[in-house]
Amino acid sequence: MSFAELWAELLPLGRDERTGGYRRYSWTDADAACRAWFARTATGLGLRTDCDRNGNLWAWWGWPGEHAAIMTGSHLDSVPDGGAYDGPLGVVSAFAAIGRLRDDGFRPARPIAVAAFTEEEGARFGVACLGSRLLTGAVDPATARQLRDRDEVSLAAAMRGAGRDPGLLGRDDDLLANLGACVELHIEQGSMLADLDAAVGVADGIWPHGRWRLDFTGRPDHAGTTRLPDRRDPMLPFAATVLAARAAAEERGALATVGKVAAEPGAANAISATVHAWLDARAPDDATLAGVVGDVWTTAQQQAARHGVQVARTQESVTPAVTFDSRLRDRVVAVLGAAGRPAPVLATGAGHDAGVLAGRIPATMLFVRNPTGVSHAPAEHAEPADCEAGVAALATVLADLAGQ
Amino acid sequence: MSFAELWAELLPLGRDERTGGYRRYSWTDADAACRAWFARTATGLGLRTDCDRNGNLWAWWGWPGEHAAIMTGSHLDSVPDGGAYDGPLGVVSAFAAIGRLRDDGFRPARPIAVAAFTEEEGARFGVACLGSRLLTGAVDPATARQLRDRDEVSLAAAMRGAGRDPGLLGRDDDLLANLGACVELHIEQGSMLADLDAAVGVADGIWPHGRWRLDFTGRPDHAGTTRLPDRRDPMLPFAATVLAARAAAEERGALATVGKVAAEPGAANAISATVHAWLDARAPDDATLAGVVGDVWTTAQQQAARHGVQVARTQESVTPAVTFDSRLRDRVVAVLGAAGRPAPVLATGAGHDAGVLAGRIPATMLFVRNPTGVSHAPAEHAEPADCEAGVAALATVLADLAGQ
User: Fold this and answer.
1) Which pLDDT score, from 0 to 100, does residue A63 have?
2) Residues A326 and A373 in one domain
3) Could you give the CA distance from residue B298 to residue B279 in angstroms, rounded to a whole number?
4) What is the mean pLDDT of residues A349-376?
5) Which residues contact B290 (CB under 8 A, 6 or more apart)?
6) Residue A377 pLDDT exceeds 90
7) Do B189 and A270 touch (CB under 8 A)?
8) A302 CB neighbour count, 10 Å cutoff
9) Residue A262 sits in which domain range?
10) Are residues A72 and A184 in the same domain?
């Protein structure tokens, strides 16, 4: 099947008709539909499929264990009302590239594996790249089993509900030992390729980044009768912290965002009891990241104290700077150049499963041009011709890496 | 039945075991349980009960229409995780006062009616005092039928689900014509009576107050890849607006609160598409209120423009200043003083059904001491002795007003 045919099959699954965005949260019905699509597609290509101990999907061309496999793929889950491309483009392109290699009569000397990692976005259980982090041992399985979604459903319960055994979660060295290299294809989540007028790029590294939860606890009161000096309103230090995050990011040349907030009890005529907020911060290096988070925390504490509010900070995830394997990167750049598909090298602030795997095996990424740079939103888009260029580039790279 | 017995029967209905607060939203199962309690209690006292066209409950001692009735009562619905007293204290005290008058052999010369108004808090459909506003014609019934809760259920659908006909909603002059005066008893939602060392007070007036929804619309983007100057993040002007509301209230001697916020899509790693916020503002006079809201709106517009964000303002409800009928107030103060129950006069920033009715009939309120001033929260409390003093005061006032 062509890229366009595979893409069209996946497109309706988990899409919200009201927003046009995707709600493919792990271990939900939408996720099950995506998993069924993965199995169906892989089987149609003659690949053997498997679900690993951590819920990640695999499709194998060749037998694992004979030689170090070349792994490609990405993830199928989405942020709330996310776009169609972030994740799925890498999985669909992987299948399309394999179909193209097969049609061309290519016979791999090493196995090629297509992976779809679970909970990459952390949209349901709060930890980004959860599937790949469990695989590599970066997340403790006992901690992971206790993660809860907004309805207080644990990961363990959600997995059991989907027919999976959460007791099997954990580092999987046997599987990792079969993998020789990772090439993840992904839509670019900025507009550098558009600025450079290139359809495909190669990743240089990933900025260090993390997520912190800030819990402001005040005292619930009536909004119409509690005098200002008597109030302990957590909304006020929260608001000051949002502005401090932006200021710190500007000052230090970094990124900081508060995109998720929950005020309880959430009545228009009541002073909040608590405000929970999530800080996403990213920076070119680890010291700058620590500086931004330190600035934000200082303001949060000062403003909380000023308003008689308690504040607590929880680090939900932190990924140190990732520099992808330079030999693999140079080889990918060279083989694409030799094939008449020159691809510039670029860094990104977004985390990816390839960044998690980079701690264990040589890893690299291909980015496909995003004309507007919009991502994590329904308007996320890539032109069909650029998607085809991505498939061609991935096929070229896989043929090179798995051809010997 | 005594106050304590009536109170104990109502207390468990609609209480959330986790927070200890109440979730008695109109036309829900909890609301139905409260309504059944009302009917059972009224019937036990020998009162005839009725539900009016707008869903408000009535219990009659005597026949409506003979003479202008004296109306008492309050409401049974709650804010999210509200306290036990706000509303129910007035209804339970009304029944207890009638029981006491009956035991004392009192025979009313005018009918006495106990009302429980629906959706006083506006917690489900966003419009405070909805039941009394519909009764007096202050809210258009067609608009009311279209109000929607957070799950997009309309008031019309919710009423039909509870077996009520939303087509009957609207101004009810026949019912109003039967009412000669209104005396609502309510827990104080501040601590003035505690400061004055008085168990019961009499209302002077209600500050003008209102609720405005602010919708900030930006552009959803990836938090890890969108450069700061390219962002249109609605969280930033929202945060500035929260701080501006507090500053305006401080400067003008008013109250302003943002207690409800919803950021969409609400992912930790995505810049928000929209932030919806609700401003609650109250002031000693209408001009000051307009000044506070104008200040907040100026900041919202300026900060939205600075960040490339659209902002819209919707006035969800506004109640002008209410000065309760001075003759009725003076009579209540005099009769309580003569009975050895002196009660100070005080103003309040909280809206009440009595304030809505005050536009049509002479109205007054009795407040019962709140030792901490906490309201709209599980910790809301009144001492049993003060509740008994409230019942005694209400019985005294009803005997005076209905005795001739």
Assistant:
1) 87
2) yes
3) 14
4) 92
5) none
6) no
7) no
8) 14
9) 209-319
10) yes
Which chain A residues have a beta carbon less than 8 Å from that of B282?
223-224
How many independent structural domains does chain A possess?
2
Q: Please give the share of chain B, as a percent, with pLDDT higher than 70.
A: 100
A positions 355-394 inside 8 Å of B (CB)? 373-379
CB pair distance less than 8 Å for A260 and B263: yes
Q: Are B244 and A254 in contact (CB under 8 A)?
A: no
- Interface check for A209 against chain B (CB to CB < 8 A): the answer is yes
Do A290 and A374 sit in the same domain of this protein? no
DSSP state of A26: T
> Given CB atoms, is B249 within the 8 Å cutoff of chain A?
yes
Q: What is the mean pLDDT of residues A310-318?
A: 93
Contact B220 A350 (CB under 8 A): no
| Chain A residues touching B280 at Cβ < 8 A | 223-224, 268-269
Chain B hits for A255, CB-CB cut-off 8 Å, are: 223-224, 226-228
Distances (CA, A) of A3 to A93, A105, A389: 7, 18, 11
Q: Do A80 and B265 touch (CB under 8 A)?
A: yes
Task: Kindly determine whether residue A280 and residue B258, on different chains, have CB atoms separated by under 8 Å.
Answer: no
Q: Return the pLDDT at A250.
A: 97
Is B176 found in the same domain as B107? yes
Contact A81 B220 (CB under 8 A): yes
Among A282, A299, A319, identify where a domain stops: A319
Distance from chain centroid for Cα A21: 16
Give the model's confidence band at A191: pLDDT under 50 very low, under 70 low, under 90 confident, else very high: confident
Q: Which residues of A touch B237 (CB under 8 A)?
A: none
List chain B residues with CB under 8 Å of A205.
none
Q: Is the peptide bond before A342 cis (omega within 30 degrees of 0)?
A: no
- Interchain CB contact of B83 with A (< 8 Å): no
d(CA A190, CA A368) in angstroms, rounded, equals 10
What band does A101 get if pLDDT is binned at 50, 70 and 90?
very high
Q: Do A126 and B255 touch (CB under 8 A)?
A: no
User: Which CATH number fits the domain that encloses residue A215?
Assistant: 3.30.70.360
The average confidence (pLDDT) of chain A is 95
Does A217 touch chain B if contact means CB atoms closer than 8 Å? Answer: no
When pLDDT is averaged across residues A115-138 and rounded to a whole number, the result is 95
Residue of A nearest to B250 (CA): A228
Say whether pLDDT at B66 is over 80. Answer: no
CATH code, B41: 3.40.630.10
Q: Which of A276, A295, A319 is the last residue of a domain?
A: A319
Quote the percentage of chain A above a pLDDT of 70. 100
Claim to verify: residue A299 and residue A325 sit in the same structural domain = no
* ipTM confidence score: 0.75
Give strand pairing partners of B256: B281
User: In terms of domains, do A44 and A143 share one?
Assistant: yes
Q: Which two tokens stand for residue A184?
A: 């993840």
State the DSSP H helix or E strand holding residue A72, giving kind and residue range, or none if neither: strand A69-75
Same domain, B332 and B385: yes
Domain check: are A375 and A342 in the same one? yes
Q: What is the pLDDT of residue B349?
A: 78
Cβ contact A123–B249 (<8 Å): no
